[in-house]
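The data are set out underneath:

___
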Amino acid sequence: MGGCFSKPKPVEVKVELSLLEKEKEVDGLSPNGKASPFADCRLNGALAHTSDEDSMLLPLNHNSRDFVEASVCHVKDLENGQMREVDLGCGRALLIKQQGEFSAMAHKCPHYGAPLVKGVLSKGHVRCPWHGACFSTATGDIEDFPGLDSLPTFQVRVEKDKVIIRANKQALQSQKRLKPMSRCSAVINSNTGFSHVLIIGSGPAGLVCAETLRQEGFTDRIVMCTMDRHPPYDRPKLSKSLESTAEQLRLRSIDFLQDHDIELLTEKEVMAVDVKTRSVTFEDGLRMEYKKLFIATGSKPKLMNYKGKDVRNVFHLQTPEDANSIARLANNKNAVIVGTSFVGMEVAAALTDKAHSVSVIGIEPVPFKKALGEKVGKAIMKLFETNRVKFYMLNEVSEMIGQHGQLKEVVLKSGKVLRADVCVIGTGSVPATGFLKQSGIHLDSKGFISVNKMMQTNVDGVFAGGDVVTFPFPPRNNKKVNIPHWQMAHVHGRVAALSMIGRPSEFKTVPYFWSAMFGKTIRYAGYGDGFDDVIIQGDLDELRFVAFYTRSEEVVAVASMNYDPIVSRVAEVLGSGKTIKKRDVETGDISWLIEKGSH
């Protein structure tokens, strides 16, 4: 994939941290004068708006109606390693200065529209402050995920000490750019039971795989099949925005897929894969042969044992229709959430302004204890309690009781009875790989598909990615891990596509995920599984903190709330192969990790 990260031999770097001292940063040194691992990835340094004079429009050529030119600042207004958001009159751009050279591109991340000026500028790329996507400052190409689109870039020149940007007006307005994509060169009958590449699953892994193939010039047939009834959509938003329709969540339209010869078969469930004949059989009897197969079926809800499974209005949140029904049924009614997974907790938060009551049942004493630690979990739990959410922890469901088939009560094993008009089960998930059990494709004891660093399975021509796989993770000495993040699935799709066409790419990314509740966002980067300590800087009570997760004596992950863009900045350090030691985050000054100002 793109060169967002280099992977030099790991080196230990001293980090001195203290919340109290005033922020300082001079020539890449930390406040105490010692070498900072963040020296190569500076934050925005010049955030002020440009003056009206600086933004004055210059005369355009009479035949350049599609373009705008503007003088946006003085050549000395930006230092090396700084960014500025500038106004060109009919749109804004991000101006960047690195190694004495200026460049300019769109100012918003095409994923969710984050202001990139508040992100992290490193060697040759900008990292989004919200979700960690990376974009080349030279080309605007997306180099690390999430997101599907790249950024348009604009011409920059210097005349009489003025920095002038020339930009396409349409690009300024759209703030995104699609990489060129090839089309299928063969004349294909849609009923033909053969596809050069067959993709099972239309989530981010499958979609990025298909798009990458087309971007890399692949001109044979691509078929993507899914059990969903909709084109690819933004699944993480389901639990955060329950009333959104599939259309509103859509990532790519049917027209887009058709324009790029990516055939989509919806409501298709795979029953079996025969690796000897290189064929896939579907529930409706369709059989399709393939040359290359990519399996990205994601996960399915973990089943729960309780009485009353025939009672209606009990949901596993899987589709936009599920989300819409949950929101409708909970309106001024009693909602019960079973499980303190991120999805379950996000649904609970989303329902507080709709439901009469919201109750959460969990088997752990504190939500998110395994992922974020007990202290962070307690702080988030307090946020929920402040918003009228009632917790029943160290508890499990015994029975769902209905009246005329409709849910009325949830009975806990403790004997407690909760009034309930709608129930959402968010007790975790398992890989959706049941159809592979007799295929010869290797599954581990938990049902995950084992792949190598090229996302290849043990079977020639069969690849897999996303939530269904365990893959070798370089920061853990290539131990095989499962990281079910939306961002990671994008990476898997790209790596698999490049492997299919004989252009294998090294696995280069830092895991990154986020969760939003009550208008507040938790950001997380790294791989904290098995952490043995959490070092917290900031104020948990105010939910303005950064938590460093350590394993032995090394920082392996970081989480934050209201501390942007610290998680993206730490991701840069981890991605560069440098090491942050536990002793360096226990005391000291982290003010120079935090945003210097707001635009």
In short: The radius of gyration is 25 Å. The chain has four domains: 67-174, 194-300+432-501, 314-427, 519-594. Residues 110 and 169 are 17 Å apart (CA to CA). Confidence is low (pLDDT under 50) at residues 1-63, 595-599.
